[in-house]
C-alpha cells in the first residue's frame, strides 16, 4: 500500500525507482479510505536523506499514510534552503490545531549540548506537550528519544567516554510485545551518538518498559506501557552508506574519527559495508504503524483519547 506525500518531494523519485508505492495527494483523494496522518518533525540537517529514509520504511507497509513534514520555526537548518522548507515543510504554528494519528521525531546533532541550550528547546517542549492531546502515538529517534524521555519522565542523558559509532547486536527482552513481533533473538542496528540514557533509569519508571538492549550500545528500545510513546536510541532508518558518509566527513574535518564498529568488512574502509539491519528496520516501523497506530487510533481522528500520564513531573 502507498505512502501519500507531496508530488514534488525529491524523495518521491528515489522511492519510485525502488518500487516503493508512493501516491500523490491528487490520486489519494479519489480513494474511499482514511489514510493515517503522520507528522514527521525532521531535526536532522540532511533533510532530503532523512525524508527518503523514513518514507522508505513507512511506504513498505500495507497502509496508506499521509505524511506532514515539520521543521522548527525558531531555528533554520544551515544545510537546507529556506525555499525548500517553505515548499515541503510546515511549522508547529501551522498544525497545532490539527490532530494526527502518529508523530515521528528524528535525531539531531545537538546531543553534546544541555537540553536547555538547544536553540529550539522551548519550541520542542511545546510540540511534545501538544502531542499529548493531539497525537495518538509517537515514535522518537536517537536525540529525539533522549529529549522526550527527559521531557516526559525527567530522565537525564549522560556523556559517553567515546562516540558510540557503528553497527551493534541487540537482544529482545520482551518478545511478547507487539513492537518486536517477528524480531530475531539477536538483531543489528546502527548507532551514532555521544550520549546515552541509562537502562536502569528507564527500568525505574513504572510507566516504561525496556524492550531491547545491547551489551555494547546499552538501551535501544523502550515504550510506555500504553504503547503510545516509543523511544529508539539508534538509527535503524540509516542507509547503507550513512555511517560511511559521517566517517569520511569527520575524517576530512580533521577530527580523527574511529572506524564505525562492525561496519566495514575486515575493518577495511575501502570496501562497501554489508547491510545487516534492513529487515529489522522494516519490522520496527511496520509493527509500530500497524499495531500501535492503525489498530488503535480512532477512525474519527478528532476523538483522540487522552494519553496515560507520565509518572514523573513533565518539563512543559
From TrEMBL:
Superkingdom per UniProt: Bacteria
GO cellular component: cytoplasm
Chain residues that bind substrate: 163, 192, 249
Site (Important for substrate specificity): 192
EC number: 2.3.1.31
Residues with site note (Important for acyl-CoA specificity): 111
GO MF assignments: homoserine O-acetyltransferase activity; homoserine O-succinyltransferase activity
GO biological process: L-methionine biosynthetic process from homoserine via O-succinyl-L-homoserine and cystathionine
Residue numbers annotated as active site: 142, 235, 237
Catalysed reactions, as listed in the record: L-homoserine + acetyl-CoA = O-acetyl-L-homoserine + CoA
Broad EC category: transferase
Record function comment: Transfers an acetyl group from acetyl-CoA to L-homoserine, forming acetyl-L-homoserine.
Entry similarity comment: Belongs to the MetA family.
Protein name: Homoserine O-acetyltransferase
